[in-house]
Amino acid sequence: MDEIDEINETGSTSRSNIRTFTVIGQIEGYYMLGEGQKSTKYEHIIPLLADAEQDTDTKGLLFLINTMGGDVEAGLAIAEMISGMSKPTTSVVLGGGHSIGVPLAVAAKRSFIVPSATMTLHPVRLNGTVIGVPQTYNYLQRMQDRITGFIAAHSKINIDELRRLMMNTDELANDVGTIIDGNAAVSCGLIDEIGGVSDAVKYLRGTMTGE
Fold first, then answer.
1. pTM
2. What does the pLDDT look like over 140-165, one tens digit per residue?
3. Which one, out of 42, 175, 180, 183, has a CA that is 20 to 30 A from the CA of 121?
């Protein structure tokens, strides 16, 4: 598989000793999305991450993020894989890092965001039929705790502030949550710093060489 085919098939590529992954569109989990929808497939990303961890030629990983969110379980699985890498990792939020894209952005050892990018923080949602019993609400609460716990553990944001932003009722007309831009994401401690691809690559090269 040449480099163009690799990008088209898996959304990843390697240049020198840095391997690049794209997280775009929706995170596809247990169910396939419809035709014409851009997606990041967890069954592609997870084996590639495992391969990168074992590959002696790969010295660092760069994640380019522009996602609207998607499957929570799949997104958390990818985020846990990223956070568990022994090699230097960095993420750049370009355009948007919404919903389950937030844990993906903070999972890397160093996170960047461009000033014009936005991130949406909101509580867990369910699509389809919801059975109105205590077990359903307990499940939602446990899932929410998993997400907020992961974000707080991998960023500098205060968990109470994170919960406040997620449960905000004043900003979104038909929903609960908050949309923040790049500068606000850095100010609240969610993302480490403002920067783009060149800043992320510079960070990786400095970490890889011990500079």
1. 0.85
2. 778 889 999 999 999 999 999 999 99
3. 42
